[in-house]
Amino acid sequence: MWTLRPLPFDDLAGWAADDHAAALRAFSRHADRPAGEAYRHGRLGIPPESLEPLFAEAAQDAARKDPRGFFESHFDCHALTGSNGERGFVTAFYEPEIAASRRRTDRFRVPFHRRPDDLVTLRDDNRPTGWDKDMRFARRMPDGVLMPYPDRKAINAGFLEGRGLEIAYVEHAADAFFAHVQGAARLRLDDGTSLRVTFDGKTGHPFTAIGKLLVQRGEIAADAVSMTTIRAWLSAHPDDAQALMEENRSYIFFRETPVGDAADGPVAAAKVPLTAERSLAVDRLLYSFGTPVFVSADSVNGKTWSKLMIAQETGSAMIGPARGDLFMGSGDAAGERASAVRSAADFTVLMPKSVQIDREKAVAP
């Protein structure tokens, strides 16, 4: 069990030295999200409506002139404390950049697919009896019956061919696979243009980390597993690579978006562009998008990490209040940095002063 414990800003290690202006810019992006885009009320207890006026104020000159003062005047700190002394944990993610083509060619043969029209999002009111509550997608058959969607292996074997769902093609299956893992990619097309593909649903099968499988099988040492070592294994074992990747049955569908500002990350679950080193993926059942969270991690790329992050993304591995994924940016360098992040961390949630909670609020485990 986790508890939210009040904590003065002066007692928050690393707070004074942070770049509050960078956090403010990420926070203020929520004021410009698409009209009508409402956020879910997370169980931590922050009503989305309590954040709305703060998004707008953060975009004003007064806040930009004193970003630290903005956060300290409008929020209270609440440290997440584990009942048995447990701590939180962070990993990291990034946006791959991949050479691609709109057309299938001898070089570019591995497709990214847009969402098929028979893919259905499951909710409590339409989930078939007996299905796992974590199963979020299904296939609607012609008679209306819901069935599990074919998995990665079936799609690789051609299940979606002939339906016109291909957005673009890349050269290497591993590039497509890691874009599926990250949920987004920036594609450099062979006609000189660029586009983004971002998450738009999945088959619904559980995610399986192939790096964990390689460690379990003695192929890669536990302290050496990273995107680099996994890629190296896939390259060195071409006869086994596809079968390994297909053990992750989860297959992602994408929608295309323009690149826009090249410095921005992809538009993710909160419908705002992600900001490198400021956007945080969280458990969306617990966190309301837009919530500021100060993350103190023991080691991120060899250094301590103490930064105010903004909850703007989610992911299937983000379960619990003290589990987070740090967005590191776009491209290969960001990917190398992201792949090495696995650190114990402490989370401090910034709650709007307008929100009244118990002095020590219990949070679901």
Could you characterize what this model shows?
With 365 residues, this protein is an alpha+beta fold. It folds into 2 domains: 2-92 and 265-363, RlpA-like domain (Barwin-like endoglucanases, Beta Barrel), CATH 2.40.40; 94-257, Ribosomal Protein L25, Chain P (Beta Barrel), CATH 2.40.240.50. Helix content is 22%, strand content 30%. It has 10 helices and 18 strands. The chain has helices spanning 20-28, 48-58, 61-65, 67-74, 152-156, 173-182, 210-216, 227-236, 238-246, 332-339; strands spanning 2-7, 75-82, 88-95, 97-101, 110-113, 119-121, 137-140, 146-147, 166-170, 184-189, 194-202, 252-257, 279-281, 292-300, 303-313, 323-330, 343-352, 361-363. Strand 14 (292-300) and strand 15 (303-313) form a beta hairpin. The N and C termini lie close together (5 Å).
Topology:
Blueprint (H helix, E strand, L loop, with lengths): L1 E6 L12 H9 L19 H11 L2 H5 L1 H8 E8 L5 E8 L1 E5 L8 E4 L5 E3 L15 E4 L5 E2 L4 H5 L9 E5 L2 H10 L1 E6 L4 E9 L7 H7 L10 H10 L1 H9 L5 E6 L21 E3 L10 E9 L2 E11 L9 E8 L1 H8 L3 E10 L8 E3 L2
Helix pairs in contact: 1-2, 8-9
Q: What is the CATH H-level superfamily of the largest domain?
A: RlpA-like domain
The proportion of residues forming helix, as a percent range, comes to 10-25%
| Major sheet attributes | 6 strands, mixed, barrel
Give me the oligomer status: single chain
CATH architecture of the largest domain: Beta Barrel
Tell me, briefly, the overall form: globular
